[in-house]
Specification:
This protein is of the alpha+beta class. It contains 10 helices and 8 strands. The chain folds into 2 domains: 34-75 and 118-282 and 326-448, Outer membrane efflux proteins (OEP); 77-113 and 284-318, Single Sheet (Outer membrane efflux proteins (OEP)). 67% of the residues lie in helices and 15% in strands. It has a 4-stranded antiparallel β-sheet, with no helix packed on it. A two-stranded parallel ribbon has the order 1-4. This is Channel protein TolC.
Length: 457
């Protein structure tokens, strides 16, 4: 009985090992296949919380708001309290005494006119808006980066399946040639050509498997965890096309909504306020001063009855000469304003260029997808005909290899064009100032949970 149990255990272990070996052979190295799937929108939600660039942009926007509040504080009343206690010892020819004195003071100061402080507040107000716009720009850029890495991962899986499918197809042709060669109906050169191609595809499969692992790591860098789920793929039942809006409409939206452009506009406003604040160094300041004091210390540190004093006054400060530093600072701030204005103009031109490029490329890709589908159908028919002709000895292995390569080249071109189309749609939405979540959600609607290689043969 014990021997039977041991034998049964050994058989089960061998069976489990065989199943595990088959699973490892079917799964790309470094990628754990899962029955669960994820889509672009789910990864986008995770990236909003985990991508260091996005988290840092949130913190930067919040810091800008606090700096604005800090600058505003200089315009509000400044209230301070002071207290002191002294031990005084006095000696003279007539008397020698020691006593304690106490004093308490309350001072309120409010600027009535301070151009430099007011313009400084305006500067930080503009900088706060700039940091908010920069945060939106960072989120938009990060969403495009996530989508491109997502499509890169899909393309890597496609490439692996394409190489495997091409190897299987070439292997079938090699098997036919081997059978014909045994009957002396085929040339050794045909057999060697096909064998060399199979070996080359086997080597390419190893590289493609590595690219799958690398592309998954690139996704993990953004979302902050290993991405092991199956990725939703492009649906085949859709006609991919850009919206019906004209190029002029997209450019007009970009000029009004693009966050990078808004950030530069706020930068110009901040530079103008900084220049006015610098010029404020030439202006006088006027302040209201109120103070209250209580002490029992009199003239020359003498003991006196407790005295309460209340003072109200107006203070005027007029700058006369500061060694030329104020004028130099103003000249420097003027040049900073010129820099900000030129950066704004450069951003305007880039927005127009990026929108135009993405719009034209996306439209071109949409038209190219249809042409690539027709090319794939023709290449499939050509490959099937070449394989049949090879069986009858009407063509050689070179012709078959060429037809197989043409078919899989057409598959690669179709898949690449689809991914390029989706990437350019997201780029177009980004530069037109559309909310990142809206663009991701629209593209995500074109994806489904189909398995990789479902249409490969």
């Amino acid at each position: 009985m014990v021997a039977s149990a041991a034998l049964l255990g050994s058989v089960l272990m061998l069976a489990a090992g065989a199943v595990l070996a088959q699973t490892e052979a079917a799964t790309p190295a470094g990628v754990n296949a899962s029955t669960f799937s994820t889509d672009l929108m789910q990864l986008y939600r995770e990236a909003r919380l985990e991508d260091p660039q996005i988290v840092a942009s949130y913190a930067q926007a919040k810091a800008g708001q606090e700096h604005q509040r800090e600058a505003m504080g200089a315009l509000l009343p400044q209230l301070s309290f002071s207290a002191g206690s002294n031990r005084i010892h006095q000696e003279s020819d007539l008397v020698q005494r020691s006593f304690d004195s106490e004093s308490y003071g309350l001072v309120l100061r409010q600027y009535l006119y301070n151009k430099a402080a007011w313009e400084n507040y305006q500067k930080f107000k503009s900088l706060a808006r700039q940091s908010e716009s920069q945060a939106l720009e960072t989120q938009a850029e990060a969403s495009v980066e996530l989508a491109q890495r997502y499509f890169t991962a899909l393309a890597a899986e496609d490439e692996l399946e394409l190489v495997r499918a091409e190897r299987r197809t070439t292997q079938r042709s090699l098997d036919r040639i081997n059978a014909l060669y045994e009957k002396q109906l085929a040339l050794i050169t045909d057999q060697l050509d096909l064998k060399a191609r199979v070996d080359l595809l086997t080597a390419q499969e190893l590289d493609a498997r590595n690219q799958v692992s690398l592309s998954r790591e690139a996704l993990a860098e953004i979302v902050g965890r290993p991405v092991k789920e199956r990725l939703n793929r492009i649906r085949e039942d859709l006609q991919l096309q850009v919206s019906a809006n004209s190029l002029e409409t997209w450019v007009r939206d970009g000029m009004a909504l693009n966050p990078a452009l808004k950030a530069n506009e706020s930068g110009v406003e901040a530079a103008g306020a900084a220049l006015r604040s610098g010029k404020g160094g030439h202006y006088p300041t006027l302040s209201l001063n109120l103070s209250a004091q209580q002490t029992n210390e009199g003239y020359n540190n003498s003991l006196a009855p407790r005295t309460d004093s209340y003072v109200a006054g107006i203070g005027l400060q007029v700058p006369l000469y500061s060694g030329g530093s104020t004028s130099a600072r103003v000249r420097g701030l003027y040049e900073d304003q010129v820099v900000a204005e030129q950066q704004l103009e450069a951003t305007r031109r880039r927005v127009v260029k990026e929108i135009t490029n993405a719009y034209l490329t996306a439209n071109s890709n949409g038209e190219k997808i249809g042409a690539n589908r027709l090319a794939l159908e023709s290449a499939q028919l050509s490959r099937v005909a070449a394989e049949k002709a090879l069986s009858y000895g009407m063509v050689n292995s070179v012709d078959v290899l060429a037809s197989v390569r043409n078919e899989f080249r057409a598959r690669r071109d179709l898949l690449k064009t689809q991914y390029d189309f989706l990437s350019n749609v997201l780029i177009l939405n980004r530069w037109a100032g559309k909310p990142p979540a809206e663009g991701i959600e629209n593209v995500n609607g074109w994806l489904s949970s189909g398995s990789v290689g479902q249409d490969f043969r």
